[in-house]
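Please fill in the sequence for the structure shown.

STRUCTURE ENCODING:
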């Protein structure tokens, strides 16, 4: 069994205690991972703080070159990292529509190089005979990154690369369900960076909680559940930490009657089910006009019947749900829908044998108050809801504490844009869903988060403003 190490101040570190990492396809122990103590966390934070002055003073072009070098290192080890992702996360190498482990590696590469090319130029507010006023962006210090289990490597890149590019140092804690790819990534890039600039510690939620209250961490960036995000916000008040929180979503889509159902059904299916439905911005509530409701239900069901769920190492369309806690939640939500009288077009029952396998499930004729609609299932199950009036569909779509993304599907782009602008969400798509890219800001409203990621807007979240006023009088 491969031995895994934390990285603290450029050194490989073990712990007296470990915890098991489970392969979700067979429920067997894949590896033992070191369990960090608070002393390990203190060492990592102290190393990051000691490295900050030199790293933040490093010329911009040098930091950019090193972030590009990290991207090159990921690419050189892409096959190894992809295999680890399949084993610990469950996603197939390729998967349905290409949304497998290879997709995650490709996304990590794209965001790495895009982050390297970002810049935050000085903003000159005034320059006349009286004064010159400049606004500078300065790094915050030590950034604490807490990443989830659905995209362990790609989301680590989303957090860490803009932090490093803007001159901060980092202490990262991956999810205890999927720490291995992140630890191997840290080993790969360790020789590229000065000691202390990038540190990785591993453990459960108690370690993350200790990070959020640590007095020498200046910012927390977190991707995960809304409940945990609220606790982080409370804990961060100890030293008024800056926060970027990308939290849960329960994204709604509204499909107008003028669409070509046969043309859009595969797109809707893909954006609802990619990564086995375990994506914050996946389409999770589908509101379809009554004129095309039956046709859409049947089209989605036919696609669902054609796909295969199985062990990711065999490269099926979909792998297992990543962990037992989430698997049990998906099962419970499906049972609640069945008890409420909803109509299951496909799936709906856990698959027999070992592993956390739940088939792709399409549910029709379901009430908005049912858990499957009211809560984020975060699994391969989609409710299809009927509407008659678009105002009613908007009201129902917006009747949620979440506000990450939403979409409108129509052949009339102008009308679709007008409707989409009324969705209460951070990103509204037209004739697509969950399409993100490195240069476009992404974040939620309401209880789906605080702040944004990606591009210049995301980079600014890792800095503070300093106004420089030079009097000429």
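FILLED IN BY: designer on duty
SEQUENCE:
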């Amino acid at each position: 069994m491969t031995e895994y190490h934390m990285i603290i101040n450029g050194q490989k570190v073990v712990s007296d205690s470990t915890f098991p990492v489970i392969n979700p396809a067979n429920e067997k122990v894949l590896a033992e991972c070191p369990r960090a103590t608070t002393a390990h966390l203190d060492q990592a934070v102290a190393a990051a703080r000691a490295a900050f002055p030199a790293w933040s003073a490093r010329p911009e072009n040098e930091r950019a070159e090193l972030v590009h070098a990290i991207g090159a290192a990921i690419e050189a080890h892409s096959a190894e990292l992809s295999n680890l992702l399949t084993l610990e996360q469950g996603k197939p190498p390729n998967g349905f529509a290409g949304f497998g482990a290879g997709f995650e590696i490709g996304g990590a590469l794209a965001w790495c190089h895009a982050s390297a090319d970002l810049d935050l130029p000085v903003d000159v507010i005034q320059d006349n005979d009286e004064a010159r006023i400049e606004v500078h962006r300065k790094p915050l210090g030590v950034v604490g990154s807490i990443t989830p289990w659905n995209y362990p490597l790609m989301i680590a890149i989303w957090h860490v690369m803009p932090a490093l590019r803007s001159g901060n140092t980092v202490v990262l804690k991956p999810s205890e369900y999927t720490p291995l790819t992140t630890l191997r990534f840290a080993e790969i890039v360790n020789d590229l960076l000065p000691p202390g600039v990038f540190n990785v510690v591993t453990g459960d939620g108690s370690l993350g909680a200790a990070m959020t209250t640590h007095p020498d961490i200046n910012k927390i960036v977190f991707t995960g559940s809304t409940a945990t995000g609220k606790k982080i916000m409370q804990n961060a008040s100890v030293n008024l930490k800056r926060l970027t929180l990308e939290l849960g979503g329960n994204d709604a889509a509204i499909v107008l009657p003028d669409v070509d159902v046969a043309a859009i059904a595969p797109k809707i299916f893909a954006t609802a089910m990619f990564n086995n439905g375990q994506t914050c911005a996946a389409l999770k509530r589908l509101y379809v006009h009554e004129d095309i409701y039956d046709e859409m239900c049947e089209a989605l069901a036919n696609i669902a019947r054609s796909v295969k769920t199985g062990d990711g190492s065999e490269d099926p369309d979909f792998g297992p749900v990543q962990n037992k806690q989430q698997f049990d939640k998906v099962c419970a939500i499906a049972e609640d829908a069945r008890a409420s009288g909803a109509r299951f077009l496909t799936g709906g029952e856990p698959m027999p044998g070992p592993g956390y396998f739940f088939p792709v499930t399409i549910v029709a004729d379901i009430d908005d108050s049912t858990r499957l609609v009211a809560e984020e299932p975060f699994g391969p199950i989609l409710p299809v809801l009927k509407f008659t009036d678009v105002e009613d569909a908007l009201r129902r779509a917006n009747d949620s504490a979440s506000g990450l993304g939403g979409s409108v599907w129509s052949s009339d782009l102008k009308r679709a844009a007008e409707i989409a602008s009324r969705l209460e969400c951070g990103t509204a798509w037209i004739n697509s869903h969950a399409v993100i890219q490195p240069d476009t800001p992404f974040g939620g409203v309401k209880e789906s988060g605080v702040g944004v990621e990606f591009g210049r807007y995301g980079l600014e979240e890792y800095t503070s403003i300093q106004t420089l006023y030079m009097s000429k009088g």
